[in-house]
Design a protein that fits this description.
With about 650 residues, the protein is of the alpha+beta class. Among the domains are: about 270-435, no CATH class; about 510-600, Fumarate reductase/succinate dehydrogenase flavoprotein-like, C-terminal domain (Methane Monooxygenase Hydroxylase, Chain G, domain 1), CATH 1.20.58. It is built from 17 helices and 22 strands. The protein has helices at about 30-40, 80-90, 95-115, 155-165, 245-255, 270-275, 310-315, 350-360, 375-390, 395-400, 420-425, 465-485, 495-505, 515-530, 540-555, 565-590, 630-635; strands at about 15-25, 45-50, 65, 140, 150, 170-175, 175-185, 190-200, 205-215, 255-260, 265, 290, 300, 305-310, 330-335, 370, 410-415, 430-435, 440, 455, 600-605, 610-615. α5 crosses α16 (about 565-590) and α15 packs antiparallel against α16 (about 565-590). The longest helix has 29 residues, at about 565-590.
């Protein structure tokens, strides 16, 4: 017996809706919500477009608010923090988004508190804990000396932002996938005057006219769809819709991209998602003790200080280790992952050393998070606060609690180390994936791209970072976009450009036979995993480019979408294909140049050719910008 499921929404691929607004925010996650709120409060009309529902767009929560170097208790101030970061990364990290975040992180958190989010231990659950400031009732994470990371009740954040969007009556265009940017005269490289989109339920087309547009569409490979989609699951904590559509749109319009070779090794996410809920000591579970199957403690080793950390206090107080830690966690358990803070993955030597210890019987797998051995305040902070507030881990927190897990007496198998990550990689090469990170859309100190009228925030920026970075950059870009919109009139939409985009968007709906998006996405990932990795040479990249171009001319022209949902996934996959190709082209160009001392950017010209440009080292501190971070921050801050 066969069953046919009827599409539950009326479909109208012919209908075109027009929307006019001063500021258009594409992406309603953390960065997008902040951009919209800030722009609206500066007195302009704002509209938010998101492929999902803005109520649940972006992270569902967070357990720690990082980079709060501007909070009064922090012992490292923003200027010192950026100095340390530049030293640690060798100057590779473009400093604009990071420095702005370092100066605005805590201020933004306080704004969030005013909206109703919980950021303090107001119920005195952790009174007397060493990570609690008794005067402010703030709870600090990771390094209790430096106090740059704050434990928060992040499940309240999304609700607070959404409630404010509703209170301000900002129009929210949910379930609409943005497909392209509109440019003045329909030409590449001119002012951005709006965007197009398609409703992923009804299939209706949208034309958004805007004086300013803010792209808040997340990272290029947030859902790992460039390297690690396997055809049966999305291998990421992030939404599958974070497919780099914004990067594709920006590039097609003529904006500059950079750092597309900034990708790193990762693991397949059937192990990743539980890691935050089941014993990953790298962040959510820090500084939990890890033991092997026989209860033997796996020692913590500080790769900077070159010594084992014998006490819990040494794990949480960098002053006892003799150096400053700028962000995140500077230590990991054992020889498993001895590394400097900026390096991932662990060295092959470190992996081999641990494997040998396992083989010799020094450690017995699997490994476990040993909460019962932790002080009561740490145990409750890790399992009752951190795990319960992190983006998706509250689901596992609920399930574990309902199943009878008791952190006071039960060990919890660590899926991060229990398999362990490097051991899994050694036993199964398919576990290795590569993720793009840090690469993005080039912007100035106003978070304006190289295109007039186009701003960017969150992970779409070059080297933005985490929840706090998304919030800060969204807030900043929204203010700048609003100020710009007040000074200009609406640009002219080129309707030939609109019709060309409509034809591209709906092409998969006109076919009755062919392939679906999953087949193409899997093929893209297979090529990228095989040829684009840390072992890539020019020959491998040329083969990858040949494969991707053949897909572009072949399989991509055979995609079939039977309903608006499949159409959305199809359009995402076409963006994935475009971005994969851009990564390879960028890497080839960088490899062919003898030496790139600064930053290599790429953009498309009106004739369709790709133009590369080398910006000098630390170009963001070169004319026309001021020579110091502080001067640029003071000159450009919008408040």
């Amino acid at each position: 017996m066969k069953f046919a499921v009827e599409w539950p929404y009326p479909v109208n691929y012919e209908k075109v809706n027009e929307v006019e607004t001063d500021v258009l925010v594409v992406g309603g996650g953390i960065a997008g919500s902040w951009a919209a709120l800030t722009a609206a409060k500066r007195g302009v009309n704002v509209a938010v477009v998101d492929e999902m529902d803005v109520f649940s767009a972006g992270p569902a929560g967070c357990d720690h608010w990082n980079f709060a170097f501007d909070n009064p208790a922090c012992k490292i101030k923003p200027d010192r923090a950026i100095e340390i970061l530049e030293r640690v990364t060798g100057g590779r990290v473009t400093g604009i988004a990071r420095y702005v975040t370092f100066n605005e992180s805590f201020k933004t958190l306080l704004e969030l508190e005013k909206l109703g989010a919980k950021i303090r231990d107001t119920d005195d659950e952790f009174k007397g804990a060493p990570f609690r400031d008794e005067e402010t009732k703030l709870l600090y994470a990771y390094d209790y000396d430096i106090k740059s990371s704050i434990r928060v009740w992040g499940q309240t954040f999304r609700q607070a932002l959404y409630a404010e969007l509703v209170r301000l009556r900002i129009p929210l265009y949910n379930r609409i996938l943005a497909t392209g940017l509109l440019t003045e005269g329909g030409k590449v490289g001119t002012r951005v005057v709006g965007a197009t989109g398609v409703n992923i339920r009804t299939g209706e087309f949208y034309v958004f006219k805007a004086k300013a547009t803010v792209l808040c569409t997340g990272g290029m490979d947030g859902a790992c769809r460039i390297w690690s989609y396997w055809g049966y699951c999305f291998n990421s904590l992030h939404s599958p819709s974070i497919a780099g559509v914004g990067h594709m749109m920006a590039f097609n319009a003529g904006a500059q991209l950079a750092h597309l070779d900034a990708f790193g090794i990762g693991m397949r996410s059937h192990g990743e998602m539980p890691s935050y809920a089941t014993g990953n000591p790298g962040n959510t579970w820090y500084p939990c003790t890890i033991v092997d199957a026989k209860g033997k403690e796996v020692p913590w080793v500080d790769d900077y200080a070159k010594k084992s950390l014998e006490s819990l206090e040494e794990r949480t107080r960098s002053s006892l280790r003799g150096y400053e830690a700028v962000a995140g966690v500077p230590t990991w358990p054992a020889e498993l992952f001895p590394r400097p803070i900026s390096h991932y993955p662990p060295s092959k030597e470190a992996q081999d050393d641990f494997f040998n210890r396992v083989r010799m019987g020094e450690y017995t797998l699997p490994l476990y998070a040993d909460l019962p051995s932790m002080p009561e305040y740490e145990r409750r902070a890790i399992f009752g606060l951190m795990v319960a507030q992190e983006g998706k881990t509250w689901i596992l927190y609920r399930n574990l609690t309902q199943a009878g897990f008791d952190p006071d007496k039960d060990l919890l198998q660590s899926y991060w180390f229990g398999a362990t990550a490097p051991l899994r990689a050694a036993l199964d090469p398919l576990e290795i994936i590569y993720r793009q990170g840090g690469g993005g859309i080039v912007h100035d100190w106003d978070f304006k791209t190289s295109l007039e009228g186009l701003y960017v925030a969150g992970d779409a920026c070059i080297y933005s970072s985490e929840h706090s970075g998304a919030a800060v950059t969204g807030r900043w870009a929204g203010a700048k976009a609003a100020d710009y919109a007040k000074k200009v009139s609406f640009g002219d939409v080129d309707w030939n450009q609109v019709e060309q985009e409509r034809k591209r968007v709906y092409a998969p709906t006109t076919r009755t036979s062919g392939i679906d998006w999953k087949e193409l996405n899997v093929a893209i990932c297979k090529v990228m995993r095989t040829y684009v990795n840390d072992l890539s040479n020019e020959e491998m990249l040329k083969i990858a480019l040949k494969w991707l171009e053949e897909m572009e001319q072949g399989e991509a022209q055979k995609l079939v979408a039977r309903n608006p949902h499949e159409l959305a996934r199809t359009l995402e996959t076409l963006a994935v294909l475009k971005n994969a190709k851009l990564i390879v082209i960028y890497m080839l160009e960088k490899m062919r140049r003898a030496e790139v001392k600064g930053m290599l950017t790429m953009k498309i010209k009106e004739d369709g050719e790709v133009e590369f440009r080398e910006l000098p080292p630390r170009w963001w501190l070169q004319p026309p910008y001021a020579p110091t971070y502080r001067e640029n921050y003071e000159r450009h801050k919008p408040w």
